[in-house]
Amino acid sequence: MKDKIYIINGPNLNKLGTREPDRYGRLTLQEIEDMCKEKCNQINLSCVFFQSNIEGEIVNKIHDAIDENVRGIIINAAAFTHTSIAILDALKMFEGLIIEIHITNIHSREKFRHHSFISKVAKGIIAGFGEESYLMAIDYLYKLNKKKV
Fold first, then answer.
1. How far is Cα of residue 53 from the mean position of the Cα atoms in its chain?
2. Residues with catalytic annotation?
3. Element (H, E) at 42
């Protein structure tokens, strides 16, 4: 049986490809999902890829990951990174590995983006590498899981 991970995406990421392409690139979220699933297949991981603009749906998806006892969560909470105590509280209940990712370098942007609630529970943060941030997180989560076996 393959280990399962969740990749959870927050608001406005469904508009990738057309949303500020100079900042976020030209790939769509569907193309990023395809890349992630291909990467997971190559390293024998099962991947649930999810996006919502609604905070409660993201909390529910984290609850699903808890209930399914998945190995890890990769989360790009987007703007909820800086505002959502509800997502932080849900992630606090998760016993697996959490990797926070961002397409852009949040520390080179507006000051309000420098604070992350997610960072308080994440093993690490990958930011500023575009869609590669997702693939780097998958690689790292896989390596951490292999060390635990």
1. 14
2. 24, 102
3. helix 29-42
